[in-house]
Amino acid sequence: MSDLRELYQETILDHNKSPRNFRKMEHADRAVDGYNPLCGDHYTVYLKFKGDFIEDISFEGAGCAISKASASVMSSLLIGKTKAEAQAMFERFHRLVTGALNPGEEAEEFGKLAVFGGVSEFPARVKCASLAWHTLHAGLVSNEAVVSTE
Amino acid sequence: MSVKHDIAPMKQHSAEALDVPRVRSDFPILAERVNGHALVYLDNAATSQKPVSVIDATSRYYRTQNANIHRGVHHLSEEATKAYEVARSKIRGWINASLTQELIFVRGTTEAINLVAATLGASLRPGDEIVISALEHHSNIVPWQLLCEQRQARLRVVPMNDRGELLLDDYEHLLQGGKVRIVALSHVSNALGTINPVKEMTALAHRAGADVLIDGAQAVPHMSVDVQDLDADFYAFSGHKMYGPTGVGILYGKKKILESLPPYQSGGDMIKSVTFEKTIFNDLPFRFEAGTPNIAGGIGLGAAVDYLAALDMDAVRDHEHALVARATEALEAVPGVRIIGTALQKAGVVSFVVENIHPHDIGTILDSDGVAIRTGHHCAQPTMLRFGIPATARASFALYNTFEEIDVLVRSVRHAIEVLG
């Protein structure tokens, strides 16, 4: 097994202990529930749009350190981004945690997302890291109110 | 509310201690190393490891006996049929059923419960009630929920107290309603380890005119079970949790009731004769065993029974009881750890949570130390809800586990707190 410190990096531990934008949003444009049936993780991701932009994003729920930190980092990165930018970031994140980087793509280029690079070495935890992102994705592209990682 | 305990805490005589080092040498996988550490396998409630005798029995079947059963006149088919039916007979003796006809080979406990729900349940009428308990595995909840929908029946749930013990007064109250037709209970809770007083609960159900199914999946590896003494109408268990292969299990049912039930799955082997006008079904137990079964699995389960029968199950119970007690005490001494499920009568399981650390993260860190546990809701989400938690970490024990392994577990939990706390 790879070093645990690769998985539980300081940034992840920090976001787990003090998650950003961890609150219910009143008057959200979208509120989507995401479940990971394997471990019982459950988050609601709230989105507020202004035209094509994500004006606000927040989440609440319960889950492991990886899933909570991932939701927290996601929320802090996406406020003020366009829907298309958020979609692109979702795809980049997915490549990063599944270890499927494009040729020439380096984990170091992923900025604040790079701390999740260690997840790809722990296949059982990929769904934890992706849960909030899949929930976001559903909020951006579909009318589904509930998504599941299974 | 008062809780009655009618199960003897420990039998009066103390069994001769289990020879754990010898037992360990029977399980080849225990020599494996995981992530640079000796494997500490504490996920036995999910599935147990297999002794070499079980592995050899299934391998021997495929190497020297493989043929379809109950049909061929050739030598191998007779050999395979004999081996399969000898296994059934061994299992009969082991659970003290009176007749081999009362043992139906199934895929596992889940299929056994579905079989009973589909057949016994076919006679339910609108308004009839089915009673389950608050600490059931999803496999002993969902089939009954579906049945209730189909038959407009009502599902009732026996509640439990904060220790994870069923409230028998509430149970009696449910039965007094006079509408209960089926009672389905786990013998031992997979998520909490609680041993339910199923003998007493069965007697109460019978007095109220209900049939009883006991889910014994978590009981048979840990204690001797006598189905005639329990008097349950059905008793279900899986092979793979009692040192046997996956994909095979047993539904025991009283002959008189089984004979009255409609067929479950239909096809080959469950018939006597078929014409396009009429089919005559086979006798018990084959009537409920459509299609070619898991022959190697059945033979392997017979070998698992041989293995357990050669041990003193009282010694096994005492050893595992000591493991649970030791793990409980040592984990409780770790700041922030809380044990979930503190019933006075427990078998095989210690479920726990750690303050501010999700069980899934604990599982990953324990794995990095070579310790295998289960984390999550254990297919018992209503049980988790009752305790107001989404998940637990669960260490579950088998006869080959040692006190040293519990020390490793506890050190590793402290390691997890160090990393994540």
| Residue share in β-strands of chain B | 15-25%
**Spatial strand arrangement across the major sheet of chain A:** 3-2-1-4
Uncertain stretches of 5 or more adjacent residues of chain B = 1-12
Helix content of chain B: 25-40%
What structural class do the secondary elements of chain A suggest? alpha+beta
Query: What's the Cα radius of gyration of chain A?
Result: 14 Å
| Strand content range of chain A | 15-25%
Q: Which structural class best describes the helix and strand composition of chain B? A: alpha/beta
Number of strands of chain B: 17
CATH architecture of the largest domain in chain B, by name, is 3-Layer(aba) Sandwich
Percent of residues in helices of chain A: 25-40%
User: What integer is the average pLDDT of chain B?
Assistant: 95
Structure in words:
The complex is a heterodimer of chains A (150) and B (421). Chain A is of the alpha+beta class. Chain A has helices at 4-7, 10-17, 65-78, 83-97, 126-141; strands at residues 30-36, 41-50, 53-62, 146-148. Chain A has a single domain, classed as Sufe protein. Chain: A, CATH 3.90.1010. A four-stranded mixed beta sheet of chain A has the order 3-2-1-4, with helices on one face. In chain A, helix 2 (10-17) packs across helix 3 and helix 3 runs parallel beside helix 5. The model of chain A has no long low-confidence stretch (mean pLDDT 91). The longest helix of chain B has 21 residues, at 75-95. In chain B, helix 11 packs parallel to helix 14 (403-420). The two termini of chain B are 37 Å apart. Chain B folds into two domains: 20-50 and 312-420, Aspartate Aminotransferase, domain 1 (Alpha-Beta Complex), CATH 3.90.1150.10; 54-309, 3-Layer(aba) Sandwich (Aspartate Aminotransferase, domain 2), CATH 3.40.640. Chain B is of the alpha/beta class. In chain B, the strands form five sheets. Chain B has a seven-stranded mixed beta sheet, sandwiched between helices. A four-stranded antiparallel beta sheet of chain B has the order 13-14-17-16, with helices on one face. Chain B is built from 14 helices and 17 strands. Chain B is globular and about 70 Å long.
